[in-house]
């Protein structure tokens, strides 16, 4: 299953010990292997994190689904990194009315993101589901997905592929095959309730390692064929460890560890002040003489930082 495609408006009705139950009570990610190391897998539940995205950006239901999918994919991809300081940025540009989506994640389970146009509303698609593909990539499904790796002391490097559908999961599955050349099954889903709150959010990534036996591939394909959607599994009460146990049934799944995940933006007033100082002394002195404040806006979390003229004077010393 390449993607979660059945979101709908619901009816009215740092790595720590994976045995710590406190991790499993909230948003968290699990990592594991199967078939004696021939398969590696990740699964996530992140309802609260996607809810915070909605609250901060006031995303419409279809944008909540699109951005939430990308956020969770970023969290899982960040967890793949073995470098504590690596940042992974996912950027989607499409011809749909959303315009673009950006998510940045580290390997500690923290991620942030924003949509260029968060308030887009579209009618449900022909089967009554949120039309993420059209919102992101338009009717022609045109656009690109870029994955940027940023390591301290090195120039960032990136890979770019064309969008397959704009559904996010399909596009990332294609990215892994075309760019990383790793056979991957990726499912991500967000279920939005009638009050626009996030009812469910989760996903999984399963990857085949080089030299994987045909029998393992066949069993995995058979297991995945029975998975209708990620949100169905979540609605049935499954947690990430249950999802991987279900998807990897019969393949001797072994869970390795778990970590909490969260929406996290590192902006603060000190960083905003440094951005203001980057305007240069002449520009700031001109603003001070005119009695104009400086405003800094964080696209990732929606925070505003305002510096009055007297504060600008203090910054200049």
Question: Could you write a compact summary of the structure shown?
Answer:
The chain is α+β, with helices and mostly antiparallel strands. The protein has helices at 21-25, 47-57, 61-80, 132-137, 169-180, 214-225, 230-235, 240-247, 269-277, 281-290, 309-316, and strands spanning 28-34, 39-45, 87-94, 100-105, 110-115, 143-150, 157-162, 184-192, 198-208, 254-260, 262-263, 294-297, 304-307. A hairpin with a 4-residue loop joins strand 1 and strand 2 (39-45).
Structural features, described:
With 317 residues, this protein is an alpha+beta fold. The protein folds into two domains: 21-263, 3-Layer(bab) Sandwich (Hsp33 domain); 269-316, CBS domain Like, CATH 3.90.1280. It has helices at residues 21-25, 47-57, 61-80, 132-137, 169-180, 214-225, 230-235, 240-247, 269-277, 281-290, 309-316; strands spanning 28-34, 39-45, 87-94, 100-105, 110-115, 143-150, 157-162, 184-192, 198-208, 254-260, 262-263, 294-297, 304-307. The strands form three sheets. Strands 7-6-3-4-5-11 form a six-stranded mixed beta sheet, covered by helices on one side. Strands 8-9-2-1-10 form a five-stranded antiparallel beta sheet, with helices on both faces. The radius of gyration is 21 Å and the shape is globular.
């Amino acid at each position: 299953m390449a993607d979660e495609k059945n979101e709908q408006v619901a009816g009215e009705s740092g790595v720590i010990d994976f045995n710590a139950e406190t991790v499993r009570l909230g948003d968290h990610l699990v990592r594991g292997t199967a078939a004696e190391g021939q398969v590696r897998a990740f699964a996530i539940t992140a309802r609260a994190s996607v809810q915070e995205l909605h609250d901060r950006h006031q995303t419409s239901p279809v944008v909540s689904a699109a951005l939430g999918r990308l956020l969770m994919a970023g969290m899982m991809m960040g967890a793949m990194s073995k470098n504590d300081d690596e940042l992974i940025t996912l950027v989607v540009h499409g011809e749909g009315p959303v315009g673009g989506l950006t998510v940045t994640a580290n390997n500690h389970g923290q991620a942030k993101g924003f949509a260029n146009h968060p308030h887009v509303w579209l009618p449900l698609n022909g089967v009554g589901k949120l039309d993420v593909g059209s919102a992101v990539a338009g009717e022609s499904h045109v656009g690109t997905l870029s994955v940027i790796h940023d390591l301290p002391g090195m120039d960032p490097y990136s890979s770019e592929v064309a969008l397959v559908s704009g559904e996010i999961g399909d596009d990332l599955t294609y990215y892994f095959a075309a760019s990383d050349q790793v056979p991957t099954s990726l499912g991500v889903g967000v279920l939005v309730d009638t009050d626009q709150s996030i009812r469910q959010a989760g996903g999984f990534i399963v990857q085949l390692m080089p030299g994987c036996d045909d029998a393992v591939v066949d069993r995995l394909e058979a297991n995945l064929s029975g998975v209708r959607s990620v949100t169905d599994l979540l609605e049935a009460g499954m947690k990430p460890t249950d999802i991987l146990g279900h998807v990897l049934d019969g393949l001797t799944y072994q869970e390795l560890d778990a970590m909490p995940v969260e929406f996290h933006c590192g902006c603060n007033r000190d960083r905003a002040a440094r951005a203001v100082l980057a305007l240069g002394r002449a520009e700031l002195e001109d603003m001070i003489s005119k009695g104009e404040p400086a405003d800094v806006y964080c696209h990732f979390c929606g925070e505003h930082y305002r510096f009055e003229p007297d504060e600008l004077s203090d910054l200049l010393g």
